[in-house]
Amino acid sequence: MKSGVKRFLGRAGFDIVRTNNNRGGVDDFIPFEATMRAARAADLSVGDYIDEVMNGTPGATQFTIDELRDLGVFTAHLDTVLEIGPGSGRYLEKTLKECSPGRYEIYETAAPWSNYLVDTFGVVARPTAGSSLASTPDGSVDLVQAHKVFNTVTFLFASRYFFEMARVTRPGGRIVFDVMTETCLDPATVRTWATQGGAGHGSYPAAMPRQTCVDLFATLDCSLEASFLAPMGVASTEVLVFGKKA
Ligand SMILES: C[S@@+](CC[C@H](N)C(=O)[O-])C[C@H]1O[C@@H](n2cnc3c(N)ncnc32)[C@H](O)[C@@H]1O
User: What are the residue boundaries of the Methyltransferase type domain, all occurrences included (predicted)?
Assistant: First the structure.
């Protein structure tokens, strides 16, 4: 892989491991072994290593977690958490510092990282092939989250996951994910992406209209409670927090 592409993927927070069922338009991810070795050598958790060293954005993951805490996302009763595309587990690890769910389910296409998360954090890995949460029953999850996933997959994958996220969330539960909306895409930022956004790979960074998300989730009994910008690559992404009607 060309070094420019590697740098670009690193900034995006990708896991560069080839998988057969990653249908999100991104088929190269951060190599598991090499990243773990590098993180150990730097004496950092793998999540902090990705933030600080690979992405050059120290504290980026913690920033989102802090915002979610301030919004009360972790003070609700969280018995079951589900995360789509946890990758290295940088959000998962920090989520588990904020709450102690009885079950933490993951849907992750990169097998080495999925296995590592199961072994390290005792999470439950569900079969992942595309955009279905088929192993999770309706209305069974208190918090469903996905970070830096829906700007790496195509529109159809993201929107199919949206329906599934609403289905598995229990009444009164929350759904948290980020998308690169029009809020993140003023002309100057589009220019920044165009000139500094790297080599271009797969679907990253894929945009998704904010109003489309708000209107769609409203039809699924989920209303937008809050939103904020978080750093992503050379610019930002918008984190949306939905609550499902109790
Ligand atoms: C850019 S990485 C973000 C990883 C992690 N959430 C983070 O922010 O560090 C995207 C993640 O989504 C996973 N992924 C890609 N397509 C997926 C799919 N269709 N279903 C579930 N996970 C997927 C990738 O393997 C990768 O771990």
Answer: 82-177
